[in-house]
Design a protein that fits this description.
Helix content: 40-55%
Structural class: mainly alpha
Strand content: under 5%
Radius of gyration: 31 Å
Number of helices: 4
Number of strands: 0
Length: 147
């Protein structure tokens, strides 16, 4: 009944499957690659922590943060399809702004908490109980006061 069969070119200069967006379409191989990388980047930190490979806790924390950052990039590329060509780079610019804002907030919060810890008054710190603190006042014996 219709004059046009499979060509849905409604006069806009593009076919029905091409909506004019530059969003990359991933293939099954792309998703499998992203999944394998995500599994590897999850297994490595578990191994490092459970096997006790890195003894220094601050070094271990930095390594884990680095692996987490790499995993975030893998997710953005393989699953969210973010690159500099999507939407003329605006999605990447928005993501960079968000990362910068979160980084400023986290580092500022850590800085404030560190300074508060360093500048706490000495009397406010909890002291270990000493032998003088362990001595208690004599208890009142209620049995002496019988009516």
């Amino acid at each position: 009944m219709s004059a046009h069969k499979d060509n849905h070119d409604h006069g806009h200069g593009h076919g029905h499957d091409d909506h004019g967006s530059a969003v990359p379409h991933s293939t099954l191989n792309g998703y499998i690659t992203g999944f394998v990388l995500a599994v590897i980047l999850t297994a490595i930190p578990f191994y490092l922590v459970m096997a006790g490979v890195i003894k220094n806790s601050s070094t271990l924390g930095l390594v884990l943060l680095g692996l987490a950052a790499v995993q975030i990039v893998v997710h953005m590329i393989y699953f969210l399809h973010m690159n500099s060509k999507v939407e003329q780079g605006w999605s990447m610019l928005a993501m960079l702004f968000t990362v910068m804002l979160v980084g400023i907030m986290l580092s500022g919060s850590i800085w404030v908490m560190h300074n508060m810890n360093q500048n706490m008054m000495p009397g406010m710190m909890m002291a270990e109980p000493t032998s003088d603190m362990m001595q208690t006042a004599p208890m009142n014996d209620m049995s002496k006061h019988t009516p």
